[in-house]
Amino acid sequence: DKMKEMNIEIYSKAGEGGRLFGSITAKEIAEQLKKQKGITVDKRKVLLNEPIRVLGSRFVEIKIHQKVVTKIRVDIKEK
Length: 79
Hints:
Layout: E1 7-12, E2 19-24, H1 26-37, E3 46-47, E4 52-54, E5 56-65, E6 68-78
Parallel strand pairs: 1-6
Antiparallel strand pairs: 2-4, 3-5, 5-6
């Protein structure tokens, strides 16, 4: 329940129309979650259909247990 209220910020270089140079992966989200909130999550537990390639906010699912999935807000901002 605590994780539902969490949000992390990731800064990345972006080009025209808010498209990122590169992309934000599950590994980066897991690293930032540990760095910003002190929560260790295996990158395989971050459920992304595809890497994030645009600026903005979105909810990303984190699998905590076999039957428990929560969401955190990820804000992608321009560097």
